[in-house]
Amino acid sequence: MTGPNRNLTLGSLRELGTVGLVAGLCGAYAAVLIMTSSILTTMSEASGGSVGLLLGIVAGVFILIALYVGTVVIVGAVDTVISGRLRHIALLRLLGSRGRELRTSVMRSTAAVGGMGAVAGIVLGTLLTHLVRMVLVARDTLPEAEYALGDVQLVVAFVAITLSAMIAGWFGSRGILRVSPAAALAGTAAYTPAPHRTSVIRALLAGIGIVGGLAVLLLGAVVGESNPGAGFLLAFVGAAGSGTGFLIGARFVIPRVVATLSSVLGRDPSSVVARRNALLDPLRTTRSTMGLVIGVALVTTFASGMSALRESITSWELDPAQRAQADQVYEVTTIILICIIVISAIIAAVGFVSTMSLTVIQRHREIGLLRSLGFTRRQVRSMITKESVALSASAVVFGAVLGIVYGTAGAQSLVGAETAGLVWGMPVGALVGIAVAGVVLVLVSSQRPARRAVAVSPVEALRIDA
Amino acid sequence: MSPMWRAAALGRLGTMTSTTFQHSPTQPVVSMRRVSKIYGEGTGRVAALDEIDVDIHRGGFTAIMGPSGSGKSTFMNVAAGLDDVTSGEVMLAGQPVTHLGDDARTLLRRSEVGFIFQAFNLVPTLSAHENILLPFELAGRRVSAEEGRWIEHLVGTLGLAERISHRPSELSGGQQQRVAIARALASRPAIIFADEPTGNLDSRSSREVLTLLRTAAREYGQTIAMVSHDPVAASYADRILVIADGHLVGDHGPLTPQEISDLLIGFEVGAA
Ligand SMILES: Nc1ncnc2c1ncn2[C@@H]1O[C@H](COP(=O)(O)OP(=O)(O)OP(=O)(O)O)[C@@H](O)[C@H]1O
Ligand SMILES: [Mg+2]
Predict the structure, then answer these.
(1) Span of the secretion signal (chain A) (predicted)?
(2) A188–B124 C-beta distance less than 8 A
(3) Do the Cβ atoms of A42 and A148 come closer than 8 Å?
(4) ipTM, 2 decimals?
(5) CA atoms of B42 and A150, how far apart (whole Å)
(6) Which CATH superfamily groups domain B27-271?
């Protein structure tokens, strides 16, 4: 019963588009990094160095980060699709489908779509890298050599992405288990989150991780004043600890951040409804924004760390030639690092845009009702935009704050001893860039859904079987 | 609390007058002239409304009846300015709905029209109380002390006092329906349109709701237009319109449930 069930559970392939797109982005990204490191390995073997191996390891770490964000985004996307079809699923349950079977079929679909996306992305990324390589060789920036066309690691990446999509399908479809068959007969057509059990253990672990980690991070920054090696180690442990704490406790932390920041939206009906929808389900709020928080935090950490390092270099006594060289090295390193790291923010943004679109489609009936009760088109539009602002602004601000703390502490622990006082990492340029990207994200994520919402006819709300 | 007592409680409030109804009281609240609504073209053409002429006067409680697919919901949508007509003119609370743009129509609905739908009446993210106050919020006006007392009475009469801070998902179908009724009555619109308002209610609550609607119409002149299939429900109205195949085929004064059943059987046989 997998064939028909899949469509019945997840609806059209369009609703799974996000899964394919995210898997494709991960694939393209992985392929670019893998092929670049393969090309550099070939190159350094030709000239007798070991840059490639190191790059391979670094690439592995970055690919894992992107995969993690991708998985979070896919979990969110699947969950959004499922929660929009709860009644439908309830009907399937009523007619005798078992929750497990439905979840397995969801998992198969996400694995299939994720796998297809991964293949497309990997092929595209590989071709792109070779294209750039050929251009660079032609311009004599890269030496002529026997560059491999592919790499076994590409297969590993494919397997990893497909597995991630599959796992994400399983976690994202947990909502199915909370559907009671009786819900098919109930009157509310709207999405209503089932109450989640708040796990004490989870809260405890998160608390320990966040508080303990931040304390160790602070200690690292202090120790860095006298002992850079020990300081950086402490800062790393602290960042890892508190980062893990935030990941575990995201569902406690992020909804609070969104609630606090969105309270500035205003008190008119469109703001109130927007805010309520943004906070309707803490888990959904968390999933749709967590990727963004991670992406922005990573970008800001690197930008902030690099700017702090740079600040401290400025205070060193160097002759002009050395200074110019040091400046250039940092400039180039910063840009490359940020380019590599920004992918997770992009993947997260794609996921966010698609979540916004889906939730608006799912709410067309509610929107029809609001229109018939007297919401003007403009109010409906502003409601959608405000919801997008509430979620994305919170994610961006929270991520940037985390990133500045991590970047500054990391830099301080590393070079604090050689610099007077605290090295502040305020990457103004990067922050402006992030703010602009945030505004663009709000516009992109709300434009289409808002247009769709405005087009909803008030009569829709009256139809019983819409 | 017995229905009789509730009706009495409402009666005491009946002296308050509607503040939103702007135009002259003798003018009809809804006036339709040669209104047609056509769906589709060629062989798929359906005239949901075919050259309808009708006036609904202030303070009346009108029931709209007819076989399934006869055009009752379309009638309501068009009269309330929710849907466009294919031809003809609709006046709603003194305004030419058919000539108004979307925004003007929305503002007109906001201030002059209350709705009770058969299902999915409430904004899911707002509590019952917030749903009731939504028309005031949308109009950007505060609830006066008098209106506050009126709302409190409605909530009490409808048996919602204990559920007032709940979200719609935590209410039964009937409770949701009653919240929608409270919302429609709270802001005293020029007219309330109700599509099967008792569809989700048991016979006792449905009697209470109908009594409440009739009292609202009789005691303080609330105009109500109600679509219903139920002859008992329609017997609470003081006027019964019958629609068949997009035509207005009957316009009666108050009738007993038995008389209404007999009336409809004729049409349903005729329609089949
Ligand atoms: N959007 C639409 N597109 C095409 N035809 C429609 C549409 N809406 C209604 N109709 C048709 O118009 C006619 C009247 O529909 P309407 O919903 O007004 O009936 P009704 O009297 O309310 O029926 P019921 O008692 O079953 O609710 C029906 O034949 C219906 O098929
Ligand atoms: Mg109908």
Answers:
(1) none
(2) yes
(3) yes
(4) 0.82
(5) 60
(6) P-loop containing nucleotide triphosphate hydrolases (3.40.50.300)
